[in-house]
Amino acid sequence: MSLIKVGVVGCGGRMGQALVGQIMDHKDAELSGGTERHDSPLIGQDIRHPDTNISSNLSITDDAEALFEASDVVIDFTCPTATVLHASYAIKHQTTHIVGTTGMTPEDEDSLKAASGKVPVVYASNFSLGVNVLCYLTQQAAHLLDDNFDIEVLEMHHRHKVDAPSGTALSLGKAAAAGRGKNLDQVADWARHGITGEREKGNIGFAVLRGGNVAGEHTVSFNADDERLEVTHKAGNRVIFARGAVHAALWAVSQDAGLYDMFDVLGLPES
Ligand code: NAD
C-alpha cells in the first residue's frame, strides 16, 4: 500500500511540531511538507522530528498552495485567516483538509462548508478521543438531569492561548444545551463581573483560567441542591490532539466530500 502524503501548515507551531512527529512516526503516512507564515524566521529551515531531531529532508516553505497540491491531505492548526485561505486551496487542488484551528467566526466556517462540498473536511475543536467521549457524556447527562441542575463549563489552558472560552469549552456548552433541547446562544452566560444578579435557571455558565503550560483541562459541572456531578478531562500533552488529527487525516482521505467531526471519525453515536 502506498503511503498517504500528509502536509502540515503552520508546522513550526506548538501543534504543528507535534503533528510532524506523529506523521514521521506513522507507518501509513509520509510527510509531504510544511509551511509557516511569510515573515517567519523558520522559512528555509529543515523540518525535523520534535523528539528525535531526525531531519525529514524537507524544508519549511511559505507556499501553502504548493503544499496542498503535493499532498493527499493537509492538517491545519494555524489561525482563522490562514485556515480560510487554506480552504480555497483544498478546493482548487482536491485535497482533504483537517482543521483544528479554533476561534473561527461563522463567516470563517462558511469557507469550510464550501470546501466540504468538494472534498472531505474534518473540523473539530478537539481531536482527542477522551474529550469527544466527554462531549457525548455531557449531552447525555444534560438530557438525564433536569434543570434543577445548574451547568457550568470550566476550562484552563496555557498562557499563550489567544481565544476564550476554548473551542472545546464551546463544544461542551453546545453538547449540554443540545441535551436540553436548547441552542447554546439562548442560554450561555459567557462571563460574570460585578453585581450580576442571581443565576438564571437553565443557563449554562463558562469560567476561563489561563496560565503556565497547561495543554488543556475541561470540566462540566452539574450542580443541584445537595449534589454535584462533574466530568473532567485533562490533557497531559498536546500529542493527544496530534495523534487524533493524524488518525482523522488517514480516515478522511477515503471518504466522500463532506463536513465531518471527530464523532464521525471515531464512530461515536450522535444523539
Ligand atoms: P501556535 O501559535 O503555536 O501555532 C500556530 C502556527 O501557525 C504558528 O507557528 C504560526 O506561525 C502558524 N501560522 C499562522 N498563520 C500561518 C499561515 N498563513 N501559514 C502558515 N503558518 C501559519 O498555536 P498552537 O497552540 O499550535 O494552536 C494552533 C491552533 O490550534 C489554535 O487555534 C488552537 O486553539 C488550536 N488547537 C486546536 C486543538 C484541537 O484539538 N482542535 C488542540 C490544540 C490547539
Describe the structure.
The structure is a single chain. This protein is an alpha/beta fold and 271 residues long. The protein folds into two domains: 4-123 and 238-266, Rossmann fold, CATH 3.40.50; 129-235, Dihydrodipicolinate Reductase, domain 2 (2-Layer Sandwich), CATH 3.30.360. The chain has nine helices and 13 strands. The protein has helices at residues 14-25, 64-70, 80-93, 106-116, 129-144, 167-179, 184-187, 239-252, 262-266; strands spanning 4-9, 29-35, 46-48, 55-61, 73-76, 96-99, 120-123, 150-157, 188-189, 204-210, 216-224, 227-235, 258-260. A hairpin with a 2-residue loop joins strand 11 and strand 12 (227-235). Helix 2 (64-70) crosses helix 3 (80-93), helix 3 (80-93) runs parallel beside helix 4 (106-116) and helix 5 (129-144) packs parallel to helix 6. The structure holds nicotinamide-adenine-dinucleotide. Nicotinamide-adenine-dinucleotide (NAD) is lined by residues 9-10, 12-16, 35-37, 40, 64, 77-79, 82, 100-103, 124-127, 238, 241.
What's the structural blueprint in terms of helices and strands?
Elements: E1 4-9, H1 14-25, E2 29-35, E3 46-48, E4 55-61, H2 64-70, E5 73-76, H3 80-93, E6 96-99, H4 106-116, E7 120-123, H5 129-144, E8 150-157, H6 167-179, H7 184-187, E9 188-189, E10 204-210, E11 216-224, E12 227-235, H8 239-252, E13 258-260, H9 262-266
Helix pairs in contact: 1-8, 2-3, 3-4, 5-6
The structure holds nicotinamide-adenine-dinucleotide.
Nicotinamide-adenine-dinucleotide binds at residues 9-10, 12-16, 35-37, 40, 64, 77-79, 82, 100-103, 124-127, 238, 241.
